[in-house]
Amino acid sequence: xxxxxxxxxxxxxxxxxxxxxxxxxxxxxxxxxxxxxxxxxxxxxxxxxxxxxxxxxxxxxxxxxxxxxxxxxxxxxxxxxxxxxxxxxxxxxxxxxxxxxxxxxxxxxxxxxxxxxxxxxxxxxxxxxxxxxxxxxxx
Length: 139
Hints:
The chain is α+β, with helices and mostly antiparallel strands. It has a single domain (6-106, 120-127), classed as 2,3-Dihydroxybiphenyl 1,2-Dioxygenase, domain 1 (Roll). It contains 3 helices and 8 strands; from the N terminus they run βαββββαβββα. The chain has an 8-stranded mixed beta sheet with strand order 2-3-4-1-5-8-7-6. The radius of gyration is 16 Å and the shape is flat. The termini are far apart.
């Protein structure tokens, strides 16, 4: 089995004073195709170009606690492989997690803070879930 690691960017999430207005601004002025999650971008799997992967862009209310305990107005979501093994490896070297791993039909997640207090979301996606959804994307 391969060494667990980040394999790419999964999403960019940030806070806004008026998230709905800001999403509409991006749609109207920069052409984002909005969906219930914000906007989704397609990319190709470098090892298997016929497979689509997705990157999510989302705007959160300024008072969200989703990035907590970070006080930064953004959070990066990184795609990872072998999340359980990555968690064990990070724990062995002293990395603390904000929460415990959770699983959903669309993947597994866990959160941590980097040394500068930035919220980091690690995500092992289930690509088949997104393939079945047919989400409108910003190709």
